[in-house]
Structure formats: structure tokens, C-alpha cells
């Protein structure tokens, strides 16, 4: 009798794995996984060299740089501060700082610390302004102009290069166990960020402030310090990307990240696209860095396949744009009933 | 005697006007300061030709500043404005040779306006913030523009149209800048004297109250973004026809310059404040700065640096004044509470004393 009651109770509590999954994850994730599967199978069938180990490695490697930046930006987005329009300009400032220090002969460690210090200053400057109540978009638009101008002014808008046996080569072109070090860094950063968000007090605060700022303020979690912390994290991530990219090509220029980077035009917008396509709520409080990493891999896969099929940059940018708009619309429709309009 | 009183009347009026429009007064002051700085330091700045050059710049930047001013008045911001302009420029340059300039321009502006209208509809229908959607359409429209230009820089073959657009008229103007001034006047009349314009102010300043009082969010939102699209399209058409070339990935600088212009013109990021005159003055200030810096042989990235600093200063100023206001209000409320408590306590003591007796 008692066992029957227990099992009944258990059955009531455990409504099958499918609905549990559905309760846990939004339909958007399902759609994304489904689309991913379709594209994967389509690629497998139509492009003969899609499903090779080399190509899969290329996909993840392409995703790495954008992915790391997107992970940094996810903290800002989750904490309800929308996004930073200054990602690529911060990276531009940092890449110039790093290359300047490297060509000055200071060695990798000092150059790394110097670049990170600049990134922290840049991030906290924006964070202070946002935390005081400035609109994130406008503040970072201004900061973007400022950083890009500084980077161009510092380098005289020229290419800064440093000679090739240098201390940063292991990060740029080295590999470990058959995987490029940048890919390994991406995976490690993704895991760390996910652990920080899920299991630390700071991560909980990010979600709380993003989901309900008024409740956060009432319980003593001001957005002021949160904005500074998250903006600094985003800045540090773009500085890391800048260092990795500079180590790879042994040079730097202010407009490396502007339009020619990758395939899809503007780096900042690509990073924002990654965060959105991953299915994070742009209003904050909902999402994870894992989603951003998966979004980066998704975009990279689609891009890779379009390259294999010989598309030009126009259709590829168009495809990423369509993905963002699609994700926005689906997300808005799914969450429409559950969220009060701000 | 009468003369003195008339003078007093004028100065009192001026004072009242400044108190009523502090932002606009500040914008005019800033514009005059920037202009006179360059006019005094550079002998060629205060000439007819320079004024003509400034008006030529005004033709494009003014449109973008106007569009962003309207968006910010409605409490939103249109990030896709540069992409929209680039698309219009590509379309007009590509089709001018086949269809003739007026038809091509009309098509480009109509497409840009329609894109804006659709954006506005979706923003209102999905009830999302405009930045969320426009950051997506920013990329989407770049893709479309790349597609339309076939990844090349498109060029005109016949240069009669660029010549016509830059002909000098009335010393300072060209057909392009006259058209833009007409657009300013029309939008200004629309915003100030029609119900729809006031609806736009209402959804910006007090969205919840406006919706509660029965404004349908779709209509003002669609109008704002349609005007924004039209302005972006017209700006793109003017740039494309004037230079004879267009690039799909160009015109990214418009957003920063337009935002700076709008904020100097006195809009508030919270929405509901600012106006067309402010937009014009803000754009002129940016143009004075831009032209003056070009006169002093400053590279383009330094202009961007200065604009970035300017925007951050304006934002800091606005945020600071908002914080100050909030503090003052809080202080006022607290002092009022203290006052009432004092009254209450003295009354209670008096009452107690009276009872004891």
C-alpha cells in the first residue's frame, strides 16, 4: 500500500523526461537544436568534406574568438545592462597596447598584464557610467568612438608588428593534444564562466539583478557595482581575444576587428548576434554562457557550410542577420505572456 | 521711457524663454562657442564657402540627427540607421543609370521607409525594445546591401546628377540641403501641431500612462520608425548621388555622429524631451566641430575620438543632473516628513501638557 502510494506520488512528481526537459528549457533551445541537426545533416549530405575531423576543428576554432567575447558579453546581458557596443573597439585598443608592448621588447607576461590593466580601466570606466544610470547603449557608443580614436592615435593608424620568435606564439599558433590552444582556451573559459554563473554568489547576483532590478535593489544588490564587474569581465574577455589574435598574426592594427574580420562584417554586431542566437534574453536574467558558446558554434557551423558551398560574404552576412531576427521574434513570442513590458 | 520698458520686456521674455528651454539655450550656447572658437582661430572659417560646406554636411548628418532625435523622443533608439542609409545609397547608385535619378531615388527612399515601418510594427507588436530588433536588422540590412551591391563598390557612370545636387543656390545652399531643410520644417510642424506628433512625445515620456490612456502603441511607433527610415534613406540617397559611389559596408560613422547631435540638441535618454530645432542646432554644432577639425588637418579617427568624448560628457552631465534631481527630491520629501513629525510631536506634547493640567 505504502509503496503504491509512494510510486504514485513519484509518478506525479516525475512527469517523464520529455516534459521535464520542456519545463527546463525554452522551446527556442529545441528549435535551435533541431535547426542545428538539420543543417548538420544537410552539410553532411551535400558537402563532402564537411564531416571531417579537420573541418570540425576549424569550425570550433573559428567559433573560439567570437565565442570568448560573447561569453564576456553574456555577463553584461544577463545582468540587465543590454549589451556593449564597444566590444571591438576595446579589442582594438587592447591589440594595439599588446603589440606596442611586445614590439617594445617587454616580453609576453608584462605585455599581457599591461593589456589586461588597460582592459580593466576601460571596462570599469563604462561600468561606472552605466551603474550611475547612463544608458548602456549610448555610453558604450561614446566609449567606442573614444577607444577607437585612442587606438588609432596611439598607433598612428599603422600596422604595429613584432618579430616572430616571441613569447606569445604558444597562444597564437601552438596546439595541445591536437587541438589549437585558442580552442582549449575557449573551452576552459566557457566551463569557468558556467561554473561562476551557476555556483557562486556573484553568479546568483547577476541573475537576480538582471531578472528584477527593483527586487535586487530592495535586497541590497545595487546595479552600480554589478555594472562595473560585468563590464570589466566583458572588457577582459575582449582583451584576451585581442591578445590571442595578435599573437596569431604577430601584428596589430586598430581596424583589425572592424569590417574585415571573419566573414560577417562588424565584430561587435557578430558578438551580439552570438549572444542573441544562443537564446539569451536580452532584457536580462535568463540565459547562460553555455548558450552563448553554443550560439558561437552554431553561427560558425552555418558560416562554414556556406563557405564550403561557395557563397560570397553577402549571403553569409544575410544569413547571420536572419538568424538574429528570427531568434528575436521567436524569443519575444515565446516569452510574451510571461514578461511585463519594461 | 517706452524704449526702456520695451527693452525690459524683451530681456524678461528672453529670461522666461531660457528658463522654459534650458536644454535648447545650452545647445545654442555650445554651438555659438564652437563656431566662434574656430572662426577666431582660423581665418578661412568665417567665409561664404565654408558656410556652404557646413550646409552640405548638414544635409546628411542633419537627417540622421533628426531621425535619431525622433527615436529618442519616443524612448527608443534606431541602431540600424547606418545600414539603412548604406542600403539606400547602394540602391540609388545601382539603378540611376537604368531608371534615371528621380525614379531611383524615389525607389530607394520608399524601400528605406518601408523597412522602417516594418521595424516599427514589429517593435510594437512584439513589445520589445527597439535596440533589440534594430541590432538584428543592422546586420540583416548590411547583408541585403552587400547582396544588392554584389560585394563591390558600385559607381555612377554619368555625373550630371552629382553636379546638379551640389549646385550652389542662394550663396549657402544646394538642392540637397534645401530639401533637408524642407524635411526639417515638415517634421517640426508634424511633431508640434498634430495629434500623432504629441502621441510620440507621450509614448516616450510616459509609456505606461500613454498606453493606459488609450494610445495604440503601434501607430506612433510605426510613424517614428517610418520617419527614421525615410530620413536614413534620404541621407543615403544624397550621399550616394553626391559622391557617385556607394559601399555596402560604409556609413557606419553616421550612428555616433547622429547620436551626438541628438544629445547636444537636448533629448533625454528617458524620452519625451527635445525637438526638431534642438536636432538642427545639435547637428550644426557637430558640423562646426567636424569642419573646424578638418580645417586644422585632423585625421578622421581624431574626429571620432572627440565625438566619443563629447557624447560621454553629455551623458555624464545628464546622468549627473538626474541624480542631483533625485537627491533634491528625496531631500525635499524627507524634510517635509521631518516637518510633519515635528508638528505632530509638539502637538502631542501640548495635548499631554493640557491634559496634565
Description:
The complex is a heterodimer of chains A (342) and B (357). Chain A is an all-alpha fold. Helices cover 73% and strands 2% of the residues of chain A. In chain A, the strands form two sheets. Chain A has a two-stranded antiparallel ribbon. The N and C termini of chain A lie far apart (52 Å). Chain B has a single domain (23-298), classed as ABC transporter involved in vitamin B12 uptake, BtuC. Chain B has helices at 2-20, 22-41, 48-73, 81-99, 101-126, 130-149, 160-165, 175-193, 195-205, 207-212, 218-243, 254-264, 276-295, 300-356, and strands at 154-155, 245-246. Chain B has a two-stranded antiparallel ribbon. The longest helix of chain B is centred in the last third of the chain and has 57 residues, at 300-356. Chain B is globular, with a radius of gyration of 25 Å. Chain B starts with a helix and ends with a helix. The model of chain B has no long low-confidence stretch (mean pLDDT 85). Chains A and B meet through helix 7, helix 13 and helix 15 of A and helix 6, helix 12 and helix 14 of B.
Sheet bearing the most strands of chain B, described? 2 strands, antiparallel
| Biggest interchain interface, per-side counts | A-B, 57 and 54 residues
What is the highest CATH level, the class of chain B? Mainly Alpha
Classification by helices and strands of chain A = mainly alpha
How many DSSP-defined strands of chain A? 4
The run of helices and strands of chain A is: HHHHHHHEHEEHHHHEHHH
Q: How far is the N terminus from the C terminus of chain A?
A: 52 Å
CATH architecture classification name of chain B: Orthogonal Bundle
Strand content of chain A: under 5%
Name the overall outline of chain B. Answer: globular
Number of helices of chain B: 14
**Strand composition percent of chain B:** under 5%
- Uncertain residue ranges of chain B: none
Topology as H/E string of chain B? HHHHHHEHHHHHEHHH
CATH topology-level fold name of chain B: ABC transporter involved in vitamin B12 uptake, BtuC
